[in-house]
């Protein structure tokens, strides 16, 4: 008779061997995120006369697996700012909730949420920088779009290291390689944004999304696009890339039905 | 490679004739907290002025992030306009650290003014900057900083730093990606290194040209020349040249276009 | 109050021999001196209103708000000691935010009222604290639509099993009132503060139980009731402060917001007209006759 009730009901040592208590050990080095898990690809954005357009596709990948295909990566803050997220989706959700709690706190006062996109960008960059300095990064690269304190269109980038920069058109991830050259050709940086119309900006982003879908293996033909103007945010989250042409595939090995 | 017994060589499984990795190599994607955003900065002093300059390109690898990201900042002035500042800081290297460093020094200089009722001297600020940098000796701000202003005698003052706070006062200094391209040019043109007085003697008797403070317009031209040349030879330098000219009248900020290729 | 002066009224956590906590009853007295506050639970939303007595001409009109936003969908108005009310609101905000932290969803108004009731009650148990000198009205709109979890990223599969029962009613308006004892009930219409008796009498006439009153009419009635309740302290000037929470398809889209200035002024005009009408009626009917409506 085993007189120790604490050992009752456990696998018998003479059958299974002694239990290895090593698995119960909770001490050891503390580990943080050292790589992202479920990720979103490029975010692209352009300023135009009176506002900013931002776009992402609706895919969240798990490595090379297209894991979630209806993921909304454009997040609205207040009534005149949008954040486009690339990188880790769970970190995006964390930041989204963080921003939601800020919005709720801002609305305690009857003035409502007075934080503009510029304020939001400064804040996000500091959050990213703080977390990278703790070696516990939020694995994202974001674009923040909206208006600055003077009501001028604002578009700026912040990443997991806390690096920030701003330009008339920006793209993260693969978009930095594929979309930026297209945007720079369409809208040379020396031309004032006043000469770019909303329609031009939107159609340019659609073109970029198409190129990204052709060439970025971690992309999708379903996308979200947000147009931010002083009148508010026009957010569409269930769009489809149109006018695709895969004719070129016929001439490339591995595409389509060719056999040799 | 089968053995003479005909059995597969090696201890395990199927006998491949070549060594087979038992599993995919463990891919460790560690987190590296730094990046290099490229660009270059440069500072030169004269008898009654100091100039700090930098290009405005921000890069990530071969990508240009933006063509307009200033690296030179007014310290201790108004948040928006920089008005009232008397000290200028340039940072080049990891831009996020550069920004954090700039904001810390800015706060320190402002607090000094609020608490003591007078602006911080450049020498005091220089020592404080060193302390801030050394405070992160074991997780450094990955930047090369240059601090400029006018000293208590009204002469141009320039201090240059390594990432962990070692510093010295100098006549001129180039930092960043194209430092190795610009610095020898400065040695020659500002401190007259390898320049001799013609006909002053033969061999060791040849007299070196003595360095003396240069006029402001001349220095401005040197800075522009240094950057136009650096742009030609370094891919991370370009777009625009930002210059801060510190004189008794205050700080003047000017931009010049550079090549964008 | 026979046991007054016998020492049983000096401390919390001590019952009088007849089973009363006098400190709580004194707290109620503090409430009874506060400006009247009312809440109305309407068909498609909730209205909160408060009579803000102007204590000094040096105070900026429209400033120093007395109705607080706790979460997007909840507002609180209280009568009694203003600083106690502020602390109470601060606790409510912490509760609402901690609920979000745990459940990644907005706190149901009933759950918030429950937690606040528990919090206030705790202040009746210890000799080291005094009870809250406020009675608070908590108004909220619990989303009638299925809410996304905070931070939710997609909508899930468009076909296949979902396990949802269609047409189940959910959410809607909620109104609670919490007293210094920690006692709280859900109400169709709630009133507290100096003019609560008159206000309650008016609320009872509204037939709120049938659930037919629209939010817009509720706003008008709330304004009128505050004006009626003010009749007994006519010598003091006051400001009317009002907030509302509508259904998702209503004017505030389920959020707690201040009633827009234009609408509030319209409601005040209506309230004043009604009061004048009442005075005339009374004169016509003569003394002693009861008004009927």
Automatic annotation (TrEMBL), chain A:
GO cellular component: cytoplasm; nucleus; proteasome core complex, beta-subunit complex
Subcellular location: Cytoplasm; Nucleus
Keywords: Cytoplasm, Nucleus, Proteasome
Entries under CDD domains matching the protein: proteasome_beta_type_4
Major location (coarse): cytoplasm
Keyword Nucleus in record: yes
Any GO BP: proteolysis involved in protein catabolic process
Keyword GTP-binding: no
Signal peptide range in chain numbering: none
Origin: domain of life: Eukaryota
Family recorded in the similarity comment: Belongs to the peptidase T1B family.
Function per UniProt: Non-catalytic component of the proteasome.
PANTHER family cross-referenced by the UniProt entry: METALLOPROTEASE TLDD, PROTEASOME SUBUNIT BETA
Protein name as catalogued: Proteasome subunit beta
TrEMBL record, chain B:
Principal cellular location given in the protein's record: nucleus
Coiled-coil spans in chain: none
A Gene Ontology BP annotation from the UniProt entry: proteolysis involved in protein catabolic process
Domain of life assignment: Eukaryota
Record has Nucleus as a keyword: yes
Protein name (database record): Uncharacterized protein
Subcellular locations according to the entry: Nucleus
Keywords: Cytoplasm, Nucleus, Proteasome
Pfam families reported for this sequence: Proteasome (PF00227)
Organism: Penicillium malachiteum
From TrEMBL, chain C:
Main location: cytoplasm
Subunit relationships: The 26S proteasome consists of a 20S proteasome core and two 19S regulatory subunits.
Residue ranges annotated for the Proteasome alpha-type subunits domain, each copy included: 8-30
Name this protein carries in UniProt: Proteasome subunit alpha type
Compartments, record wording: Cytoplasm; Nucleus
Region feature (Disordered): 247-293
GO BP field: ubiquitin-dependent protein catabolic process
Biased composition regions of type Basic and acidic residues, renumbered to the chain: 252-275
Keywords: Cytoplasm, Nucleus, Proteasome
InterPro entries: Ntn_hydrolases_N (IPR029055), Proteasome_alpha (IPR050115), Proteasome_alpha-type (IPR023332), Proteasome_asu_N (IPR000426), Proteasome_sua/b (IPR001353)
Comp. bias intervals (Acidic residues): 276-293
GO cellular component: cytoplasm; nucleus; proteasome core complex, alpha-subunit complex
SMART domains: Proteasome_A_N
UniProt-listed Pfam families: Proteasome, Proteasome_A_N
SUPFAM superfamilies from the UniProt entry: N-terminal nucleophile aminohydrolases (Ntn hydrolases)
Gene3D superfamilies xref list: Glutamine Phosphoribosylpyrophosphate, subunit 1, domain 1 (3.60.20.10)
Family membership: Belongs to the peptidase T1A family.
């Amino acid at each position: 008779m085993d007189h120790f009730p604490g050992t009752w009901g456990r696998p018998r040592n003479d059958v299974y061997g002694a239990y290895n208590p090593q698995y119960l050990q909770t001490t050891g080095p503390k580990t943080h995120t050292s790589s992202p898990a479920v990720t979103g690809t490029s975010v692209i954005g352009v300023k135009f006369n009176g506002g900013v357009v931002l776009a992402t596709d609706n895919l969240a990948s798990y490595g090379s697996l297209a894991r979630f295909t209806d993921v909304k990566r454009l997040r609205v803050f207040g009534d005149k700012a949008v954040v486009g997220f690339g990188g880790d989706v769970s970190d995006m959700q964390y930041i989204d909730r963080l921003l939601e709690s800020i919005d709720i706190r801002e609305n305690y006062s009857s003035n409502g949420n007075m934080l503009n996109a510029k304020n939001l960008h400064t804040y996000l960059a500091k959050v990213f920088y703080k977390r990278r300095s703790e070696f516990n990064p939020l694995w994202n690269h974001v674009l923040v779009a909206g208006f600055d304190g003077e009501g001028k269109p604002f578009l700026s980038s912040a990443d997991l290291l806390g690096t920030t920069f701003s330009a008339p058109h920006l793209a993260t991830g693969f978009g930095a390689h594929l979309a930026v050259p297209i945007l720079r050709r369409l809208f040379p940086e020396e031309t004032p944004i006043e000469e770019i119309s909303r329609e031009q900006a939107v159609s340019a982003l659609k073109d970029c999304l198409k190129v990204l879908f052709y060439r970025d293996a971690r992309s999708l033909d379903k996308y979200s696009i947000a147009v931010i103007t002083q009148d508010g945010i026009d957010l569409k989250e269930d769009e489809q890339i149109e006018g695709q042409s895969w004719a070129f595939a016929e001439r490339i090995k591995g595409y389509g039905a060719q056999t040799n | 490679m089968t053995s003479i017994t005909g059995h597969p060589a090696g201890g395990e499984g199927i006998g491949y004739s070549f060594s087979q990795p038992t599993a995919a190599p463990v891919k460790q994607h560690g987190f590296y907290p730094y990046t290099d955003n490229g660009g270059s900065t440069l500072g030169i002093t004269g008898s009654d002025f100091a100039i700090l300059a930098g290009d405005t390109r921000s890069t990530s690898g071969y990508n240009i992030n933006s063509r307009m990201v200033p690296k030179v900042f007014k310290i201790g002035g108004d948040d928006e306009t920089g008005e009232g500042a008397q000290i200028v800081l340039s940072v080049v290297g990891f831009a996020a650290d550069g920004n954090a460093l700039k904001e810390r020094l800015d706060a320190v200089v402002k607090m000094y003014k609020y608490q003591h009722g007078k602006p911080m001297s450049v020498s005091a600020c220089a020592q404080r900057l060193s302390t801030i940098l050394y405070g992160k000796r074991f997780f450094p701000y990955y930047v090369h900083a240059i601090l400029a202003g006018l000293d208590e005698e009204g002469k141009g003052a320039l201090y240059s730093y390594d990432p962990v706070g070692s510093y010295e006062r100098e006549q001129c200094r180039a930092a960043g990606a194209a430092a190795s391209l610009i610095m020898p040019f400065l040695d020659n043109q500002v401190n007259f290194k390898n320049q001799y007085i013609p006909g002053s003697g033969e061999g060791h008797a040849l007299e070196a040209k003595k360095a003396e403070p240069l006029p402001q317009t001349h220095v401005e031209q040197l800075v522009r020349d240094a950057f136009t040349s650096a742009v030609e030879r370094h891919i991370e330098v370009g777009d625009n040249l930002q210059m801060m000219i510190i004189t008794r009248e205050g700080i003047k900020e000017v931009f010049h276009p550079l090549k964008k290729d | 109050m026979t046991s007054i002066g016998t020492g049983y009224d000096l401390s919390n956590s001590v019952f009088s021999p007849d089973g009363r906590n006098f400190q709580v009853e004194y707290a109620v007295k503090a409430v009874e001196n506060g400006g009247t506050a009312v809440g109305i639970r309407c068909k498609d939303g909730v209205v909160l209103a408060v009579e803000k007595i102007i204590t000094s001409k040096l105070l900026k009109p429209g400033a120093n708000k007395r109705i607080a936003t706790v979460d997007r969908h909840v507002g609180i108005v209280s009568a009694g000691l203003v600083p106690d009310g502020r602390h109470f609101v601060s606790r409510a905000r912490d509760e609402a935010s901690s609920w979000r932290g745990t459940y990644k969803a907005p706190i149901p108004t009933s759950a918030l009222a429950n937690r606040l009731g528990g919090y206030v009650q705790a202040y009746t148990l210890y000799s080291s604290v005094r009870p809250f000198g406020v009675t608070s009205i908590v108004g909220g709109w619990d989303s009638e639509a299925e809410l996304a979890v905070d931070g939710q990223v997609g909508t899930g599969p468009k076909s296949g099993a979902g396990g949802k029962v269609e047409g189940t009613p959910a959410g809607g308006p909620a109104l609670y009132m919490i007293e210094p004892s920690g006692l709280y009930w859900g109400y169709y219409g709630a009133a507290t503060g100096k003019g609560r008796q008159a206000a309650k009498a008016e609320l009872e006439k509204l037939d709120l139980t049938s659930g037919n009153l629209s939010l817009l009419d509720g706003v008008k009635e709330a304004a009128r009731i505050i004006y009626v309740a003010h009749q007994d302290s006519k010598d003091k000037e006051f400001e009317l402060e009002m907030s509302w929470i509508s259904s998702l398809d209503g004017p505030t889209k389920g959020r707690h917001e201040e009633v827009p200035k234009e609408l509030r002024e319209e409601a005040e005009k209506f309230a004043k007209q009604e009061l004048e009408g009442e005075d005339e009626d009374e004169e016509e009917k003569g003394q002693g006759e009861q008004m009927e409506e």
